[in-house]
Amino acid sequence: MTRRLLLLIPLLLFAALVVFLYRGLAKDPAARDSALLARDFPAFNLTTLDDPNRTLDRSLLKGQVTLVNVWGEWCPTCKQEMPQLLALADRGVRLVGVDYKDTRENGRQFLDEFGDPFEVSLFDPEGTLGFDLGVYGAPESFLVDAEGVIRYHHTGYITPQDVEDVILPEVNKWQP
Amino acid sequence: MLIRTLPELGHFALILALAMAVLQAIVPLWGAATRRPLWMAFAQPMAWGQFLFLVFAYLSLTASFALDDFSVAYVANNSNSLLPWYYKLSAVWGSHEGSVLLWVLILSGWSFAVSLFSQRLPRDMLARVLGVMGWISSGFLLFILLTSNPFERLLPDVPTDGADLNPLLQDFGLIVHPPMLYMGYVGFSVVFAFAMAALLGGRLDAAWTRWARPWTNVAWAFLTMGIALGSWWAYYELGWGGWWFWDPVENASLLPWLAGTALIHSLAVTEKRGTFKNWTVLLAIFTFSLSLLGTFLVRSGVLSSVHAFANDPSRGTFILALLGVTVGLSLAIFALRAPRVQSLAGFGWLSRDSLLLINNIVLVVMTVTVLLGTIYPLLLDALGLGKISVGPPYFNALFVPLTALLCLFMGLGPLARWKRMPGRELARRLGGAAIVAMVVAAVLPLLYGGSFSLGVTLGLLLALWLALSLARDIVDKTRRGRLGGLKKLTLAYWGMVLGHLGLAVTIVGVAMVSHYNIERNVRLAPGQHVEVGGYQFAMTDFRERSGPNYTADTATIEVTRPGRASFTMQPEKRFYVASGMPMTDVALRPGLFSDLYVALGEKLDNGDWSLRIQLKPFVRWLWLGALMMAAGGILAVIDRRYRRVPRRSAAVRTHESIPPGAGARGDIS
Predict the structure, then answer these.
(1) Proportion of chain B in helix, strand, coil states, percent, rounded to 5
(2) Do A113 and B521 lie within an 8 Å CB cutoff?
(3) Which of A67, A72, B316, B406 could potentially form a cystine with A102 if both were Cys, beta carbons 3.0 to 4.6 Å apart?
(4) What is the pLDDT at residue B341?
(5) How far B601 CA lies from chain A's nearest CA (Å)?
(6) Is A134 on the interface with B (CB under 8 A)?
(7) How far apart are CA B229 and CA B112, in angstroms?
(8) Over residues A143-151, mean pLDDT
């Protein structure tokens, strides 16, 4: 009888997996952390990608609506996202990059090659800011209003359609 | 006007196919349970009919693409009147609905093949196998009809032109990669059905493994090819020269491959020795479950990935339910029906049996590693433990040592005998191979790269160990019988050799390209040149041109190397008009020992262009090795043993006792 019970183990493990997958399904990854919305952008103290001696903090985001984009040279999807970010910058949106878990050299090469839409890129090699933002991959983007409050969170790739349909309307909505 | 109604006819054919699949799922199984030959005989005609109607449905969708019928929503979203005809035909599986249709078509194709080639099978076995496949088919046909109908019309406002196929998919890779991959994924349904049939029939002897093995090998070979093609496609199409990203969707194809690799070895043990019976059944269930899980991960959009598909919660829920029912039911049947008795045949701690057991354990650990890494974000998120990103560092840190462990035992396995192998003899036969492998692996990187690299040495060591131990085995086997010895080696044996060598070749490719890759980002204007890795790259020309559905900036780069003829490369930046998407078209100069890879980047402020130039040593070996593995799998199937098939011996085989040592001349495949 105990042997028969042992044979049930795979079934039980699988049942547990299904429960997790079902809950994952309910949590659409694009909508997942609404918890961050309407909160202050987390505090940080990071150097910029270009200049290891220049550090910036949260006051960077005050006074103007900013789209903070978390990217990395190691992230294939970020490369596909660049044209859309460049288009947003052309349309007058202020962009700040967070070069996440990357090396300075790779990050700079990436911007040389694919273009640089960012007013400034923060350098986050340890992923500390990424952790505070609850990022689990790149690209992710956060729209921060003039008060430094997170107003919109975009998980994953911003498609050419998203530029018109989602990002620009959100930017306009939170203009002071 | 019959042609205008093709989509409706196709839709109708899908419904008829579903009706047949349901009958195929119920009647033969009931017949087998109640021993009614007529009911059992129902399985084949239903499989044939289902296949016929699915082919019709598939062809009608293809026709809608070929005829630019943009009143069909799926066609309007994924095609364009300017799209070249061959992409119109392959655009059928360019997005969700059509690829599910292809999935079901291939499933019914496998059922059709089983019903044709398994006439020697006992009637009730065949009825059960086809019945189980009927269940799977019913589930997926329901999925199509309820959530993903490819024939939906856009009426009354018919678009004048289509939105075009995603430019990334306008490539030879799309034509070949998904069908191959699906052949593999879906092909594992056959061995799953055999395992379930054996459980249901209560005949969990070794016979079913003998019938299932050729099917499993073929599916595995297709999956191997599919994964390799996907990697090759990503390499040249995505424009940054990577060949494996540990992306969730790639992992989804690797999971059934790893489990399937364990399965083909475990099937061998069960067939030859009658042991590992429960384990083999469980692996058969797991392998197909992982194929379904892969389908779920890709189709539901629970994980973000470069393989972006429209993400629709109702579809995700449906596939999850399908996955839950299929796997839950099969594991429940396993728990209820798996035989209680321990296999009687024992084996020593050092024997081919024990080595294959270790191989299985390592492969299963690898599978679990990849599975955990893939769904980890989901698990933590569901548990509310925060969000952690799992990337290449995790996979590389675990996968490399596990592969090393696997290869260590892979070198020993083919030379070991069933049941018991004296360690001293194994050491005597393989000591030389081990020493040569170590010396060559330590010296070769110094000669090639000029510096010592642990990664390359490890890779070469593993590859040489595999190759030399196989060579030793072939020498030993042929020595005794002189030239006649070579003839005695079966095709199945050569299949094993080729498969194992294929892995060695792939490992060399991985090690070399990972460590000796040269990559430079440069800026160039026409008339300028740079030097990378001993080659001189000069931009001689720059012009714009227009293709059928895109415009392109084309650079002409002349590549020279002292003492060699020069050649030109033409990287492009394309802009697809209908979708408004830019694309990088890489210029590649392939070579057996090194690829040149030039991608055009952005236009810089002063009119220069940024270029990414890469030298990729041995990158072709990655896919060459996969090709060899797949060929090995096929070679094992065409072994005469499977065509002769005296039914009696299959049934008797389980009770045979194999004298120690006798197995050493045989083969594991």
Answers:
(1) 65, 10, 25
(2) yes
(3) A72
(4) 54
(5) 6
(6) yes
(7) 26
(8) 88
Q: What is the 3-state secondary structure (H, E, C) of B300-368?
A: HCCCCCCCCCCCCHHHHHHHHHHHHHHHHHHHHHHHHHCCCCCCCCCCCCCCHHHHHHHHHHHHHHHHH
Within B36-95, residue ranges assigned H as helices are 37-40, 43-66, 73-78, 85-90
Give me the pLDDT at residue B62, please: 95
Q: Is the pLDDT of residue B382 over 70?
A: no
Q: Which residues of B touch A80 (CB under 8 A)?
A: 306
What radius of gyration do chain B's Cα atoms show? Answer: 27
DSSP state of B153: B
**What are the backbone dihedrals phi and psi of residue A52, each rounded to the nearest 5 degrees, phi first?**
-65, -15
Peptide bond into A139 cis (omega under 30): yes
- Residues within 8 A of A (CB atoms), B 235-274 only: 238-240, 242, 245, 247
Contact of B163 with chain A, judged by CB distance below 8 Å, is answered with: no
Q: Do B301 and A160 touch (CB under 8 A)?
A: no
**pLDDT tens column, B295-338:** 887 776 666 544 444 456 677 788 889 889 999 999 999 888 88
Cβ neighbors of A128 (< 8 A, separation 6 or more) are A44, A46
Question: Which residue of B lies nearest to A24 if distances are taken between CA atoms?
Answer: B378
| B282 reaches A (C-beta below 8 A) | yes
Q: Would you say residue B656 has pLDDT above 60?
A: no
CA distances to A156, B470, B560 from B358, in Å:
40, 19, 51
CA distance B552 to chain A (A): 16
Residue whose pair of structure tokens reads 């130039």 in the numeric block: B613
Contact residues on chain A for B239, CB-CB shorter than 8 A: 79
B89, exposed or middle or buried, with CB in 10 Å at 0-12, 13-18, 19+?
middle
pLDDT the model gives residue B648? 43
Please give the single-letter amino acid code of residue B17. A
State how far residue A173 is from chain B, nearest Cα, in angstroms: 26
CA distances from B44 to B114, B121, B492 (A): 9, 13, 30
Beta bridge mates, B519: B614
- How would you label B214-227 residue by residue, b for 16+ Cβ within 10 Å and e otherwise? bbbbbbbbbbbbbb
> Confidence band (pLDDT; 50, 70, 90) for A26?
low
Structure token pair of residue A3 = 């042997």
Return the CATH fold of A29-173: Glutaredoxin (3.40.30)
Across A120-134, B53-67, B396-410, which has the greatest mean pLDDT? B53-67
SS3 state at B402: helix
As a dihedral over the C-alpha atoms of residue B188, residue B192, residue B198, residue B204, rounded to 10 degrees, the angle is 80
Interface membership of B342 toward A (CB under 8 Å): no
- Domain positions in chain A are 29-173
Nearest CB to A160; choose among B245, B316, B581? B581
Question: Most A CBs within 10 Å: which of B298, B329, B337, B389, as the mutation test of the A interface?
Answer: B389
- How many angstroms separate the Cα of B317 from the Cα of each of A124, B104, B299? 37, 19, 10
Cβ-based burial of A57 (10 A; exposed 0-12, middle 13-18, buried ≥19): exposed
pLDDT of residue B483: 60
Contacts of A160 in chain B (CB under 8 A): 580-581
Inter-chain contacts counted by CB atoms under 8 A, chains A and B: 117
The pTM of this model reads: 0.80
Residue A125 sits at the chain B interface (C-beta within 8 Å): no
Residue A32: predicted pLDDT = 47
The answer to whether residue B41 scores a pLDDT higher than 70 is yes
Residue A136 contacts B, CB cutoff 8 Å = yes
CB contact, 8 Å: B335 with chain A? yes
pLDDT for B658 equals 35
| Residue B417 pLDDT exceeds 50 | yes
* Per-residue confidence band for B647, with pLDDT thresholds at 50, 70 and 90: very low
What pLDDT is stored for residue B407 in this prediction?
Answer: 93
